[in-house]
Amino acid sequence: MTKEAIYRIDGITKVYRTGEVEVHALRGVDLEIDSGEFIVLLGPSGSGKSTLVNILGGLDTATEGKVFFRDEEITGFGEGELTKYRRDHVGFVFQFYNLVPSLTATENVSLVTEIARDPMDPAEALEIAGLPRERHDHFPAQLSGGEQQRVAIARAIAKKPEVLLCDEPTGALDSKTGIRVLEALASVNKDLGTTVLVITHNAAVGKMADRVIHFADGQVARIDENETREAPASIAW
Q1: Domains in the chain, number
Q2: What is the CATH number of the domain that holds 43?
Protein backbone atom coordinates (compact mmCIF):
# COMPACT_ATOMS: atom_id res chain seq x y z
CA MET A 1 0.00 0.00 0.00
CA THR A 2 1.45 3.37 -0.97
CA LYS A 3 1.78 5.94 1.73
CA GLU A 4 -0.05 9.22 1.36
CA ALA A 5 1.44 12.43 2.71
CA ILE A 6 -0.93 14.26 5.03
CA TYR A 7 1.54 17.15 5.53
CA ARG A 8 4.18 18.48 3.18
CA ILE A 9 6.42 21.11 4.73
CA ASP A 10 8.56 23.15 2.32
CA GLY A 11 11.22 25.53 3.64
CA ILE A 12 9.32 26.69 6.74
CA THR A 13 10.96 29.57 8.56
CA LYS A 14 9.60 31.36 11.61
CA VAL A 15 11.07 34.58 12.96
CA TYR A 16 9.68 36.26 16.09
CA ARG A 17 10.45 39.99 16.28
CA THR A 18 10.37 42.03 19.47
CA GLY A 19 11.49 45.55 18.68
CA GLU A 20 14.90 45.13 17.08
CA VAL A 21 15.43 41.63 18.46
CA GLU A 22 14.86 38.71 16.10
CA VAL A 23 14.49 35.12 17.27
CA HIS A 24 14.70 32.42 14.57
CA ALA A 25 12.45 29.62 15.86
CA LEU A 26 12.54 27.64 12.60
CA ARG A 27 15.18 27.81 9.88
CA GLY A 28 14.04 26.31 6.60
CA VAL A 29 12.42 23.03 7.68
CA ASP A 30 11.53 20.48 4.96
CA LEU A 31 9.49 17.46 5.99
CA GLU A 32 6.79 15.03 4.89
CA ILE A 33 4.42 13.30 7.31
CA ASP A 34 2.37 10.36 6.09
CA SER A 35 -1.27 9.76 6.88
CA GLY A 36 -1.63 7.39 9.85
CA GLU A 37 1.93 7.85 11.13
CA PHE A 38 2.81 8.10 14.81
CA ILE A 39 5.56 10.70 15.05
CA VAL A 40 7.57 11.75 18.11
CA LEU A 41 9.40 15.09 18.06
CA LEU A 42 12.43 15.38 20.33
CA GLY A 43 14.83 18.20 21.06
CA PRO A 44 15.79 20.74 23.71
CA SER A 45 13.55 23.67 24.66
CA GLY A 46 13.69 26.35 21.99
CA SER A 47 14.66 23.93 19.21
CA GLY A 48 11.50 24.63 17.19
CA LYS A 49 9.29 21.61 17.96
CA SER A 50 6.30 23.51 19.36
CA THR A 51 6.57 26.26 16.75
CA LEU A 52 6.35 23.72 13.94
CA VAL A 53 3.40 21.90 15.51
CA ASN A 54 1.59 25.21 16.10
CA ILE A 55 2.04 26.09 12.42
CA LEU A 56 0.79 22.63 11.35
CA GLY A 57 -2.24 23.11 13.61
CA GLY A 58 -3.03 26.57 12.28
CA LEU A 59 -2.34 28.21 15.67
CA ASP A 60 0.65 30.16 14.33
CA THR A 61 1.77 31.38 10.92
CA ALA A 62 5.06 30.88 9.09
CA THR A 63 7.34 33.77 8.16
CA GLU A 64 8.45 31.99 4.98
CA GLY A 65 7.79 28.67 3.27
CA LYS A 66 4.69 26.59 2.65
CA VAL A 67 2.73 23.89 4.49
CA PHE A 68 0.32 21.67 2.58
CA PHE A 69 -2.38 19.66 4.34
CA ARG A 70 -3.18 17.00 1.76
CA ASP A 71 -3.30 19.24 -1.35
CA GLU A 72 -4.32 22.47 0.35
CA GLU A 73 -1.77 25.13 1.20
CA ILE A 74 -2.71 26.10 4.76
CA THR A 75 0.02 28.75 4.87
CA GLY A 76 -2.12 30.65 2.36
CA PHE A 77 -5.28 30.49 4.49
CA GLY A 78 -6.96 33.52 6.00
CA GLU A 79 -8.18 33.54 9.61
CA GLY A 80 -11.63 32.17 8.75
CA GLU A 81 -10.15 29.32 6.68
CA LEU A 82 -7.69 28.49 9.48
CA THR A 83 -10.53 28.35 12.02
CA LYS A 84 -12.45 25.93 9.78
CA TYR A 85 -9.32 23.86 9.18
CA ARG A 86 -8.68 23.55 12.95
CA ARG A 87 -12.32 22.72 13.66
CA ASP A 88 -12.69 20.09 10.93
CA HIS A 89 -9.31 18.37 10.77
CA VAL A 90 -7.13 18.87 13.87
CA GLY A 91 -7.31 17.84 17.52
CA PHE A 92 -5.00 19.33 20.17
CA VAL A 93 -3.71 17.90 23.45
CA PHE A 94 -1.51 20.08 25.65
CA GLN A 95 0.50 19.55 28.84
CA PHE A 96 -2.23 21.21 30.89
CA TYR A 97 -5.69 19.86 30.38
CA ASN A 98 -7.73 23.07 30.00
CA LEU A 99 -10.95 21.39 31.12
CA VAL A 100 -13.96 23.45 32.19
CA PRO A 101 -14.09 22.85 35.98
CA SER A 102 -17.88 23.25 36.24
CA LEU A 103 -18.57 20.55 33.63
CA THR A 104 -18.35 16.77 34.00
CA ALA A 105 -16.01 14.67 31.84
CA THR A 106 -18.89 13.89 29.47
CA GLU A 107 -19.95 17.53 29.29
CA ASN A 108 -16.37 18.66 28.56
CA VAL A 109 -16.27 16.32 25.58
CA SER A 110 -19.78 17.41 24.50
CA LEU A 111 -18.47 20.96 24.04
CA VAL A 112 -16.73 19.68 20.91
CA THR A 113 -19.30 17.16 19.70
CA GLU A 114 -22.03 19.83 19.61
CA ILE A 115 -20.14 21.84 16.96
CA ALA A 116 -18.34 19.09 15.01
CA ARG A 117 -19.45 17.87 11.56
CA ASP A 118 -19.59 14.14 12.28
CA PRO A 119 -18.72 13.58 15.93
CA MET A 120 -18.55 10.34 17.86
CA ASP A 121 -20.61 9.87 21.00
CA PRO A 122 -18.84 11.47 24.04
CA ALA A 123 -19.01 8.16 25.93
CA GLU A 124 -17.29 6.39 23.02
CA ALA A 125 -14.54 9.01 22.91
CA LEU A 126 -13.98 8.71 26.67
CA GLU A 127 -13.84 4.92 26.34
CA ILE A 128 -11.22 5.07 23.56
CA ALA A 129 -9.20 7.49 25.70
CA GLY A 130 -9.30 4.98 28.55
CA LEU A 131 -11.47 6.76 31.13
CA PRO A 132 -13.50 4.19 33.12
CA ARG A 133 -17.25 4.54 32.59
CA GLU A 134 -17.89 5.17 36.28
CA ARG A 135 -15.76 8.35 36.00
CA HIS A 136 -17.64 9.87 33.04
CA ASP A 137 -19.93 11.97 35.25
CA HIS A 138 -17.16 13.22 37.54
CA PHE A 139 -15.96 16.81 37.53
CA PRO A 140 -12.27 17.60 36.79
CA ALA A 141 -11.53 18.23 40.50
CA GLN A 142 -12.69 14.66 41.23
CA LEU A 143 -10.29 13.17 38.64
CA SER A 144 -6.56 12.48 38.85
CA GLY A 145 -4.13 14.25 36.51
CA GLY A 146 -3.97 11.24 34.24
CA GLU A 147 -7.75 10.95 34.12
CA GLN A 148 -8.06 14.64 33.29
CA GLN A 149 -5.56 14.21 30.46
CA ARG A 150 -7.60 11.30 29.11
CA VAL A 151 -10.68 13.55 29.12
CA ALA A 152 -8.63 16.10 27.16
CA ILE A 153 -7.67 13.36 24.65
CA ALA A 154 -11.32 12.28 24.38
CA ARG A 155 -12.34 15.88 23.75
CA ALA A 156 -9.68 16.18 21.02
CA ILE A 157 -10.65 12.94 19.22
CA ALA A 158 -14.44 13.22 19.59
CA LYS A 159 -14.71 15.27 16.39
CA LYS A 160 -12.80 12.51 14.53
CA PRO A 161 -9.84 14.67 13.49
CA GLU A 162 -7.42 13.39 10.88
CA VAL A 163 -4.51 14.72 12.94
CA LEU A 164 -3.87 14.79 16.69
CA LEU A 165 -1.18 17.25 17.78
CA CYS A 166 0.15 16.70 21.31
CA ASP A 167 2.53 19.10 23.07
CA GLU A 168 4.12 17.44 26.14
CA PRO A 169 0.94 15.44 26.92
CA THR A 170 2.72 13.52 29.72
CA GLY A 171 4.82 16.44 30.97
CA ALA A 172 2.80 16.95 34.17
CA LEU A 173 2.34 13.24 34.93
CA ASP A 174 4.28 10.54 36.77
CA SER A 175 5.58 7.59 34.75
CA LYS A 176 2.76 5.13 35.52
CA THR A 177 0.08 7.68 34.64
CA GLY A 178 2.06 8.92 31.64
CA ILE A 179 2.21 5.41 30.19
CA ARG A 180 -1.59 5.13 30.41
CA VAL A 181 -1.93 8.40 28.50
CA LEU A 182 0.55 7.16 25.86
CA GLU A 183 -1.50 3.96 25.57
CA ALA A 184 -4.57 6.10 24.84
CA LEU A 185 -2.67 7.95 22.09
CA ALA A 186 -1.41 4.67 20.59
CA SER A 187 -5.00 3.35 20.61
CA VAL A 188 -6.28 6.45 18.79
CA ASN A 189 -3.55 6.01 16.17
CA LYS A 190 -4.16 2.28 15.69
CA ASP A 191 -7.94 2.04 16.01
CA LEU A 192 -8.99 5.30 14.34
CA GLY A 193 -6.08 5.67 11.89
CA THR A 194 -5.42 9.18 13.23
CA THR A 195 -2.05 10.74 12.41
CA VAL A 196 -0.45 11.52 15.79
CA LEU A 197 2.43 13.92 16.50
CA VAL A 198 3.79 13.99 20.05
CA ILE A 199 6.26 16.56 21.36
CA THR A 200 8.16 15.29 24.38
CA HIS A 201 11.43 15.73 26.26
CA ASN A 202 11.40 12.01 27.10
CA ALA A 203 13.56 10.24 24.50
CA ALA A 204 12.22 6.81 25.57
CA VAL A 205 8.79 7.72 24.15
CA GLY A 206 10.39 7.60 20.70
CA LYS A 207 10.36 3.79 20.86
CA MET A 208 6.58 3.73 20.33
CA ALA A 209 6.74 5.86 17.17
CA ASP A 210 7.04 5.07 13.48
CA ARG A 211 9.59 7.87 13.22
CA VAL A 212 11.43 10.13 15.66
CA ILE A 213 12.25 13.61 14.40
CA HIS A 214 15.08 15.30 16.29
CA PHE A 215 15.17 19.11 16.35
CA ALA A 216 18.11 21.40 17.10
CA ASP A 217 18.43 25.16 16.56
CA GLY A 218 15.23 25.44 14.53
CA GLN A 219 16.15 22.65 12.13
CA VAL A 220 15.61 18.93 11.70
CA ALA A 221 18.87 17.44 13.01
CA ARG A 222 18.05 13.85 12.08
CA ILE A 223 15.18 11.41 11.63
CA ASP A 224 15.19 7.90 13.13
CA GLU A 225 12.86 5.21 11.80
CA ASN A 226 11.70 2.33 13.99
CA GLU A 227 11.27 -1.02 12.26
CA THR A 228 8.98 -2.11 15.09
CA ARG A 229 7.05 0.04 17.54
CA GLU A 230 7.25 -0.81 21.23
CA ALA A 231 4.17 -0.84 23.44
CA PRO A 232 4.00 2.11 25.88
CA ALA A 233 3.98 -0.32 28.84
CA SER A 234 7.48 -1.52 27.89
CA ILE A 235 8.96 1.98 27.90
CA ALA A 236 11.30 2.76 30.78
CA TRP A 237 10.60 6.31 31.92
Answers
A1: 1
A2: 3.40.50.300
